[in-house]
Amino acid sequence: MSIKLIASDMDGTFLTANDEYSQARFERVLSVMETRDMRFVAASGRQVKNLQQLFAPTINNGFEMDFVGSNGAVVSTFEQQLYSVHLSANQLEKVIDWNAKNPESAENIIIMTGDKGTYVSNHATGQVAEMVFQFYPNVKQVEKLMQVDDHILGITFVWPNNEVQQHVSALRNIFGNELHATGSGFGSVDVLGKGVDKAAGLQVLQDYYNVLDSEVMVFGDNGNDLEMLTKYENGFVMPNAEPFMQQRVTKKAVDVNTNDGVLKTIEQYLGI
Predict the structure, then answer these.
(1) Are 102 and 162 in contact (CB under 8 A)?
(2) Of 94, 151, 172, 196, which has the fewest beta carbons less than 10 angstroms from its beta carbon?
(3) CA atoms within 13 A on the CB side of 249
(4) 83 three-state secondary structure
(5) CB 141 within 8 A of CB 184
C-alpha cells in the first residue's frame, strides 16, 4: 500500500544541526510528494509556533505542512488547529510539588509551555536558559510558575542526558495513572496529559485526512518517538539514535541526521 503521510521528528532526526535543514532538497521532495497526494508532518517536542517559524522559508514558498507539536499535545494542519490537551491546575501543582521535594531535582530547571507562551523561573541562567530561548517561542521568566495565567500543555524538566531515562521511569511510576512522561532530547523530560504522545497526535491527522496506519511513514531518534516508531510498520529510527532506541526499532534510516538521512530515505521510497 502506498504512503500518504510522512512524519518526522526534528532535533537529531530531520534537522542537520543548529535548526538547519536542506531547504532546496526538502522542497524538491515536497514537490514530488504533492503530485502523489502525500503530506509531510513535523512531529516534535517543540511547540507548533516554533515549528512554523522554523519552516517559514519553505511555507512562504507555497508548500503545505502539518504539525504535531509539544510531543502530541497540539495538532495543527497548515491552516487550523485540530486538537490540544492541557494539564489541570491540580496536575500542575502535583508535579511542581513533587519536583520541589525531589532531592535529585535541586539543580534542574522547570519549563512550562502554554497556549500563549513559555514560562521559566526567573532564576534560570546560563546555558539552559539560552536553550529555552532558542527552542521555545515567547519565553517569559516568572517568579511563581503556579501563578501563570495560561492553559498549560506540559511541563519540561532538564537533567543531564545520561539521567533522562531514570527520571522518566520515576515520573511514570508516580504519575502514570494520570500523566505521561517522556524523554525529549537535550536532557529534557516532558510531563504531558495522559495518552498524549506523537502517535496519538498523528492519529488525529490520520482521522482528518482518512489515512490508514499502513499508509504512514515516520522517523525518530529519541524516547518521545517510540510510540510512533513502534505503532507504524514504516517506522525508521535514525542511525545516530541512542542504543536503547536502536534495540527497540528494527528499521533504520539510510543515513544520520547530519547527512540528510530522513530526506535520503524518503527519496529512496519515492524513487527520485
Answers:
(1) no
(2) 151
(3) 31
(4) strand
(5) no
